Amino acid sequence: MLIRGSGHKDGILVPIPQYPLYSASIALLGGVLVPYSLDEEDDWGMNCRSITTAIDKARAKGITVRGLCFINPGNPTGQQLPAAQILEMLKICHKEKVTLLADEVYQDNVYANAASGTKPFVSARSVLAKAGGKLLDEVQLVTFHTTSKGAMGECGLRGGMMEIHNGPADVVDQMYKLASINLSPNVPGQVALGIMLNPPKPGEESHSLWEEERKEILLSLGRRAKAITDALNTLPGVSCVSAGSLYAFPRIEIPPRAIQAAAESNMAPDVLYCLELLKSTGIATTPGSGFGQKDGTFHFRTTILVQESKLEMFIKELCRFHNEFLTKYGGAGFAAKL
Length: 338
What we know:
Elements: E1 10-16, H1 20-28, E2 32-39, E3 45-46, H2 48-60, E4 64-71, H3 83-96, E5 99-103, H4 124-131, H5 133-138, E6 141-146, E7 160-165, H6 169-179, H7 187-197, H8 207-234, E8 238-239, E9 247-248, E10 251-252, H9 256-264, H10 269-281, E11 286-287, E12 300-303, H11 311-329, H12 331-337
Helix pairs in contact: 3-4, 9-10, 10-11, 11-12
Subunit structure: Homodimer.
Pfam family, one: Aminotran_1_2
Keywords: Aminotransferase, Pyridoxal phosphate, Transferase
């Protein structure tokens, strides 16, 4: 609805690293992706200066910036954005007359507590409500959520929703028309979404069972997130922000010989790493180059969805491969240097 077609050069701001479906959808609709960088040194936090710089550069090229997308908790980075950073985005959108697109589908996937230093999930809607005034009355905010990524769908059941704040009535009418094209809805996903939005309430017969099952799923995901993050951070040349939103996105140092081998095979170094990991262990990961990353850095994304009964084997195989990779391409000297 924001992109008017290829003749208009309509731009959408997207965080880097990004969920690749955003860049693909923007290209399909004839828009222009306007990248802005997340700050890995600040737990993949929002760099608002990067956003304003990206807007200025895009406009200098004749691009009409119409939307600012952010993902919180992040994909692939797994970070949680603090209220102050979300407020800055709202102010930018108000000043620049840009619609804020809040991808908050991983909001259930914040596993650690405040004592561990993990930031809590903060919704854009709650920050906007507290801001009040012209921000509340004028900022256009579209919030996205799903049953597919939390305690219910677990990447299986599919069902999504969006809430539009300050959207023009005629535009919202057109959105309903587009949604109505889907004549055969995903019934199980819609049922699950309805339960997510209206769960059993205290006093109802199923409430205690609902709370018990939901709590155990999230606790299990939390244990897996911590175990995988801790294991990654023990490896030489690897650093990883606390895993969240079902993913860990570690940064990896790749030996020069591996970089050379990747170039000879016409692939990115982290693609070489992920392919050799797959062949050696059967563990499927996604190279950071598929999401976009700062030049000279390498990452990969892995989920934390491995079954707890197989978690020890998963970690053991991942660690074995990493050390063998360093030995193969860098030798003991490179590992010792790291």
